[in-house]
Design goal:
5 helices, about 85% helix, mainly alpha, about 120 residues
Length: about 120
């Protein structure tokens, strides 16, 4: 019902405060993710930073029906997810290998403890 009302062609464009809040919120969300990654992993995520920079100017184009105004940041974030999914494969493989190595060291330590004590 809500999508039906939003997708109607005679619906007025979103008012500027709503556009500012929508696009500003998406931009802040993306920048917060960049900040958390920079602080936690000491690594800047350029794809999220670029997406945050791209979303800002698109707010001027959002003076269209609400469905289109909502679809634009959804498409930008969806494209960001796909780019990060396929570009981070090497990092994920490295992380998985280090986790497996750590688990093997722990298993060896536990097995050694069991052999000594049991």
């Amino acid at each position: 019902m809500v999508l039906e009302a939003v997708a109607m062609p005679e619906v007025e464009p979103l008012p500027w405060p709503a556009v500012t809040i929508l696009y500003g919120g998406v931009t802040l969300y993306l920048l917060a993710g960049v900040a958390v990654a920079a602080r936690t992993f000491r690594r800047l995520r350029p794809t999220a930073l670029i997406a945050a920079v791209v979303v800002g100017p698109l707010a001027a184009w959002a003076a269209s029906p609400p469905f289109v105004a909502l679809a634009v940041p959804v498409l930008v974030c969806g494209a960001l997810v796909m780019v990060q999914r396929f570009s981070g494969a090497a990092a994920r493989t490295r992380i998985k290998a280090s986790v497996r190595a750590e688990e093997q060291v722990i298993e060896e330590a536990v097995s050694g403890w069991r052999c000594e004590r049991l």
